[in-house]
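For the sake of transparency, this paper describes our internal protein records without simplification. An entry from our holdings is shown next, in its original layout:
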Amino acid sequence: MSKIDYATLAMFRNVYGVLLKFQPLINAIPAFAAFLIAFGAKLKKLEELATQYGAEDGDAGGEKNEKRQALCAAIYDLTGPLFIFAVNTNNIELKGKVDYTLNKLEKIAVGRIAAIADQVHKLAFDNANPLADYGVTPAMLVTLKTAIEDYNNVQDLPRETKDERAAIGQQIQPLIKEIRELLKTNGDLFIKRFQASEPSFYYEYEQAREIVDPKVNHTELKGVVVSAADGTPIYQAKVSLVGSNLSVDTGADGSYVMRLEPGTHSFTIRHHAFDGKEVIGLRVKLGQAVKVDAELAPMG
Protein backbone atom coordinates (compact mmCIF):
# COMPACT_ATOMS: atom_id res chain seq x y z
CA MET A 1 0.00 0.00 0.00
CA SER A 2 1.21 3.47 -0.85
CA LYS A 3 0.92 6.39 1.53
CA ILE A 4 -2.01 7.71 -0.51
CA ASP A 5 -3.72 4.33 -0.03
CA TYR A 6 -3.32 4.68 3.72
CA ALA A 7 -4.63 8.25 3.49
CA THR A 8 -7.64 6.95 1.55
CA LEU A 9 -8.25 4.32 4.21
CA ALA A 10 -8.14 7.06 6.85
CA MET A 11 -10.73 8.99 4.84
CA PHE A 12 -12.99 5.92 4.70
CA ARG A 13 -12.71 5.55 8.47
CA ASN A 14 -13.56 9.22 9.01
CA VAL A 15 -16.63 8.96 6.79
CA TYR A 16 -17.78 5.80 8.55
CA GLY A 17 -17.41 7.51 11.91
CA VAL A 18 -19.61 10.40 10.78
CA LEU A 19 -22.22 8.01 9.40
CA LEU A 20 -22.37 6.08 12.67
CA LYS A 21 -22.73 9.34 14.58
CA PHE A 22 -25.84 10.22 12.57
CA GLN A 23 -27.13 6.66 12.17
CA PRO A 24 -30.63 7.45 13.54
CA LEU A 25 -31.13 9.83 10.60
CA ILE A 26 -29.76 7.25 8.17
CA ASN A 27 -32.03 4.49 9.46
CA ALA A 28 -35.05 6.54 8.44
CA ILE A 29 -34.08 5.90 4.80
CA PRO A 30 -33.88 2.12 4.16
CA ALA A 31 -31.64 2.43 1.11
CA PHE A 32 -29.23 4.69 3.01
CA ALA A 33 -29.18 2.22 5.89
CA ALA A 34 -28.41 -0.63 3.47
CA PHE A 35 -25.54 1.40 2.03
CA LEU A 36 -24.11 1.93 5.51
CA ILE A 37 -24.09 -1.82 6.16
CA ALA A 38 -22.39 -2.56 2.84
CA PHE A 39 -19.88 0.24 3.37
CA GLY A 40 -19.04 -1.01 6.87
CA ALA A 41 -18.50 -4.58 5.64
CA LYS A 42 -16.16 -3.53 2.84
CA LEU A 43 -14.26 -1.19 5.14
CA LYS A 44 -13.75 -4.00 7.66
CA LYS A 45 -12.34 -6.24 4.92
CA LEU A 46 -10.00 -3.46 3.74
CA GLU A 47 -8.74 -2.90 7.28
CA GLU A 48 -8.01 -6.63 7.64
CA LEU A 49 -6.05 -6.65 4.38
CA ALA A 50 -4.17 -3.50 5.37
CA THR A 51 -3.21 -5.14 8.67
CA GLN A 52 -1.97 -8.25 6.84
CA TYR A 53 -0.05 -6.12 4.37
CA GLY A 54 1.68 -4.29 7.20
CA ALA A 55 2.43 -7.53 9.04
CA GLU A 56 4.12 -8.94 5.94
CA ASP A 57 6.55 -6.01 6.03
CA GLY A 58 8.68 -7.58 8.70
CA ASP A 59 11.41 -5.51 10.35
CA ALA A 60 13.55 -5.21 7.22
CA GLY A 61 10.67 -4.31 4.91
CA GLY A 62 9.22 -1.78 7.30
CA GLU A 63 12.59 -0.14 7.81
CA LYS A 64 13.30 -0.12 4.07
CA ASN A 65 9.96 1.56 3.35
CA GLU A 66 10.54 4.07 6.12
CA LYS A 67 14.00 4.93 4.79
CA ARG A 68 12.66 5.18 1.23
CA GLN A 69 9.97 7.63 2.32
CA ALA A 70 12.55 9.71 4.17
CA LEU A 71 14.80 9.64 1.10
CA CYS A 72 11.99 10.75 -1.22
CA ALA A 73 11.10 13.60 1.14
CA ALA A 74 14.74 14.74 1.33
CA ILE A 75 15.02 14.66 -2.47
CA TYR A 76 11.83 16.65 -2.89
CA ASP A 77 12.95 19.29 -0.40
CA LEU A 78 15.73 20.10 -2.88
CA THR A 79 14.02 19.46 -6.23
CA GLY A 80 11.37 22.10 -5.44
CA PRO A 81 13.89 24.98 -5.06
CA LEU A 82 16.05 23.55 -7.87
CA PHE A 83 13.06 23.51 -10.23
CA ILE A 84 12.12 27.11 -9.43
CA PHE A 85 15.76 28.14 -9.85
CA ALA A 86 15.87 26.36 -13.22
CA VAL A 87 12.67 28.08 -14.38
CA ASN A 88 13.87 31.52 -13.29
CA THR A 89 17.25 31.08 -14.99
CA ASN A 90 15.77 29.42 -18.09
CA ASN A 91 17.94 26.34 -17.51
CA ILE A 92 15.97 23.77 -19.51
CA GLU A 93 18.43 20.93 -18.86
CA LEU A 94 18.35 21.42 -15.09
CA LYS A 95 14.56 21.76 -15.13
CA GLY A 96 14.25 18.37 -16.79
CA LYS A 97 16.55 16.71 -14.27
CA VAL A 98 14.64 17.91 -11.19
CA ASP A 99 11.03 17.83 -12.39
CA TYR A 100 9.76 15.47 -9.68
CA THR A 101 6.67 15.60 -7.53
CA LEU A 102 6.76 13.62 -4.31
CA ASN A 103 4.19 11.23 -5.73
CA LYS A 104 6.37 10.66 -8.81
CA LEU A 105 9.43 10.00 -6.64
CA GLU A 106 7.60 7.38 -4.58
CA LYS A 107 6.67 5.48 -7.75
CA ILE A 108 10.23 5.26 -9.04
CA ALA A 109 11.71 1.77 -9.12
CA VAL A 110 13.72 0.73 -6.07
CA GLY A 111 16.89 0.35 -8.11
CA ARG A 112 16.74 3.93 -9.46
CA ILE A 113 15.78 6.06 -6.48
CA ALA A 114 19.24 6.13 -4.90
CA ALA A 115 20.84 7.14 -8.22
CA ILE A 116 18.35 9.98 -8.60
CA ALA A 117 19.09 11.06 -5.04
CA ASP A 118 22.83 11.16 -5.80
CA GLN A 119 22.18 13.26 -8.91
CA VAL A 120 19.95 15.74 -7.05
CA HIS A 121 22.52 16.05 -4.26
CA LYS A 122 25.25 16.86 -6.80
CA LEU A 123 23.07 19.41 -8.61
CA ALA A 124 22.19 21.12 -5.34
CA PHE A 125 25.83 21.09 -4.19
CA ASP A 126 27.05 22.54 -7.50
CA ASN A 127 24.46 25.35 -7.30
CA ALA A 128 24.62 25.89 -3.54
CA ASN A 129 25.38 29.61 -3.69
CA PRO A 130 22.44 30.76 -5.84
CA LEU A 131 20.13 28.22 -4.19
CA ALA A 132 20.64 29.96 -0.85
CA ASP A 133 18.26 32.63 -2.17
CA TYR A 134 15.66 29.88 -2.60
CA GLY A 135 15.86 28.65 0.98
CA VAL A 136 18.35 25.81 0.45
CA THR A 137 20.71 25.38 3.40
CA PRO A 138 23.81 23.21 3.95
CA ALA A 139 21.76 21.24 6.47
CA MET A 140 19.36 20.18 3.70
CA LEU A 141 22.28 18.76 1.71
CA VAL A 142 23.49 16.87 4.77
CA THR A 143 19.96 15.53 5.34
CA LEU A 144 19.80 14.16 1.79
CA LYS A 145 23.28 12.63 2.03
CA THR A 146 22.35 10.93 5.31
CA ALA A 147 19.06 9.68 3.83
CA ILE A 148 20.94 8.15 0.89
CA GLU A 149 23.34 6.32 3.19
CA ASP A 150 20.55 5.11 5.49
CA TYR A 151 18.54 3.81 2.53
CA ASN A 152 21.50 1.99 0.99
CA ASN A 153 22.39 0.35 4.31
CA VAL A 154 19.01 -1.38 4.78
CA GLN A 155 18.68 -4.94 3.47
CA ASP A 156 15.88 -5.74 1.04
CA LEU A 157 13.00 -8.08 1.89
CA PRO A 158 13.32 -11.77 0.96
CA ARG A 159 11.66 -12.63 -2.39
CA GLU A 160 9.02 -14.82 -0.71
CA THR A 161 7.84 -11.98 1.51
CA LYS A 162 7.68 -9.59 -1.42
CA ASP A 163 5.48 -12.04 -3.32
CA GLU A 164 3.12 -12.45 -0.37
CA ARG A 165 2.78 -8.69 0.06
CA ALA A 166 2.20 -8.26 -3.67
CA ALA A 167 -0.63 -10.81 -3.55
CA ILE A 168 -2.29 -8.93 -0.69
CA GLY A 169 -1.79 -5.64 -2.53
CA GLN A 170 -3.59 -7.05 -5.55
CA GLN A 171 -6.66 -7.57 -3.35
CA ILE A 172 -6.43 -4.14 -1.76
CA GLN A 173 -6.50 -1.97 -4.88
CA PRO A 174 -9.78 -3.34 -6.33
CA LEU A 175 -11.39 -3.09 -2.89
CA ILE A 176 -10.38 0.56 -2.52
CA LYS A 177 -11.89 1.19 -5.96
CA GLU A 178 -15.12 -0.57 -4.93
CA ILE A 179 -15.47 1.50 -1.77
CA ARG A 180 -14.79 4.74 -3.64
CA GLU A 181 -17.49 3.86 -6.15
CA LEU A 182 -19.89 2.91 -3.37
CA LEU A 183 -19.40 6.30 -1.74
CA LYS A 184 -19.73 8.13 -5.03
CA THR A 185 -22.92 6.39 -6.14
CA ASN A 186 -24.61 6.14 -2.74
CA GLY A 187 -23.21 8.11 0.19
CA ASP A 188 -22.42 11.27 -1.77
CA LEU A 189 -25.92 11.28 -3.23
CA PHE A 190 -27.83 10.45 -0.05
CA ILE A 191 -26.03 13.13 1.95
CA LYS A 192 -27.39 15.88 -0.32
CA ARG A 193 -30.85 15.25 1.13
CA PHE A 194 -29.60 16.56 4.48
CA GLN A 195 -27.86 19.73 3.30
CA ALA A 196 -30.77 21.97 4.29
CA SER A 197 -32.46 19.93 7.03
CA GLU A 198 -29.36 18.63 8.86
CA PRO A 199 -26.47 20.94 7.90
CA SER A 200 -24.15 19.64 10.64
CA PHE A 201 -24.47 16.10 9.25
CA TYR A 202 -23.89 17.33 5.71
CA TYR A 203 -20.81 19.43 6.49
CA GLU A 204 -19.20 16.82 8.75
CA TYR A 205 -19.62 14.26 5.97
CA GLU A 206 -18.16 16.61 3.35
CA GLN A 207 -15.20 17.39 5.60
CA ALA A 208 -14.59 13.69 6.27
CA ARG A 209 -14.56 13.00 2.51
CA GLU A 210 -11.37 15.05 2.08
CA ILE A 211 -8.26 12.92 1.58
CA VAL A 212 -5.37 14.47 3.47
CA ASP A 213 -2.13 13.27 1.92
CA PRO A 214 0.25 12.77 4.89
CA LYS A 215 3.39 12.91 2.78
CA VAL A 216 2.77 16.50 1.71
CA ASN A 217 2.60 19.54 3.98
CA HIS A 218 2.38 22.18 1.30
CA THR A 219 0.86 22.86 -2.06
CA GLU A 220 2.16 24.32 -5.28
CA LEU A 221 0.79 27.15 -7.38
CA LYS A 222 1.89 26.92 -10.99
CA GLY A 223 0.89 28.15 -14.40
CA VAL A 224 1.85 30.01 -17.54
CA VAL A 225 1.62 33.77 -18.14
CA VAL A 226 1.13 34.94 -21.74
CA SER A 227 0.28 38.08 -23.64
CA ALA A 228 -3.44 38.57 -24.22
CA ALA A 229 -2.61 40.11 -27.58
CA ASP A 230 -0.92 37.19 -29.29
CA GLY A 231 -0.40 34.41 -26.72
CA THR A 232 3.36 34.99 -26.51
CA PRO A 233 4.90 33.78 -23.22
CA ILE A 234 5.84 36.65 -20.91
CA TYR A 235 9.37 36.38 -19.51
CA GLN A 236 10.11 37.67 -15.99
CA ALA A 237 6.56 38.47 -15.00
CA LYS A 238 6.51 38.55 -11.19
CA VAL A 239 4.01 36.35 -9.34
CA SER A 240 3.73 37.60 -5.76
CA LEU A 241 1.80 36.25 -2.77
CA VAL A 242 -0.15 39.06 -1.13
CA GLY A 243 0.81 39.68 2.48
CA SER A 244 4.20 37.98 2.26
CA ASN A 245 7.62 38.39 0.67
CA LEU A 246 7.17 35.27 -1.43
CA SER A 247 7.44 35.79 -5.19
CA VAL A 248 8.76 34.04 -8.29
CA ASP A 249 9.51 35.18 -11.84
CA THR A 250 8.25 33.44 -14.94
CA GLY A 251 10.76 31.73 -17.18
CA ALA A 252 11.30 32.23 -20.90
CA ASP A 253 8.36 29.92 -21.59
CA GLY A 254 6.12 32.01 -19.32
CA SER A 255 5.86 29.28 -16.70
CA TYR A 256 6.16 29.65 -12.93
CA VAL A 257 6.02 27.43 -9.86
CA MET A 258 5.46 28.68 -6.32
CA ARG A 259 5.42 26.47 -3.23
CA LEU A 260 2.79 27.52 -0.66
CA GLU A 261 1.25 26.43 2.59
CA PRO A 262 -2.37 25.28 2.30
CA GLY A 263 -5.05 27.89 2.89
CA THR A 264 -6.81 30.74 1.10
CA HIS A 265 -4.42 33.07 -0.69
CA SER A 266 -4.42 36.12 -2.94
CA PHE A 267 -1.63 36.91 -5.36
CA THR A 268 -0.66 39.35 -8.09
CA ILE A 269 0.94 38.88 -11.50
CA ARG A 270 2.79 41.93 -12.83
CA HIS A 271 5.16 42.97 -15.60
CA HIS A 272 6.38 46.46 -16.48
CA ALA A 273 5.06 46.20 -20.06
CA PHE A 274 1.64 44.73 -19.25
CA ASP A 275 -1.41 45.47 -17.13
CA GLY A 276 -1.28 43.48 -13.91
CA LYS A 277 -3.71 40.88 -12.67
CA GLU A 278 -4.83 40.03 -9.15
CA VAL A 279 -6.36 36.75 -8.00
CA ILE A 280 -8.22 37.02 -4.70
CA GLY A 281 -9.25 34.28 -2.30
CA LEU A 282 -7.85 31.24 -4.11
CA ARG A 283 -8.28 28.14 -1.97
CA VAL A 284 -5.37 25.72 -2.07
CA LYS A 285 -5.74 22.37 -0.34
CA LEU A 286 -3.09 20.29 1.38
CA GLY A 287 -0.96 18.41 -1.10
CA GLN A 288 -2.47 19.86 -4.27
CA ALA A 289 -0.79 21.51 -7.23
CA VAL A 290 -3.11 24.35 -8.26
CA LYS A 291 -2.78 25.57 -11.85
CA VAL A 292 -3.49 29.24 -12.57
CA ASP A 293 -2.68 30.52 -16.05
CA ALA A 294 -2.94 34.22 -16.87
CA GLU A 295 -3.22 36.49 -19.89
CA LEU A 296 -1.92 40.04 -19.42
CA ALA A 297 -2.93 42.88 -21.72
CA PRO A 298 -0.09 45.03 -23.14
CA MET A 299 0.00 48.56 -21.78
CA GLY A 300 -1.15 51.35 -24.04
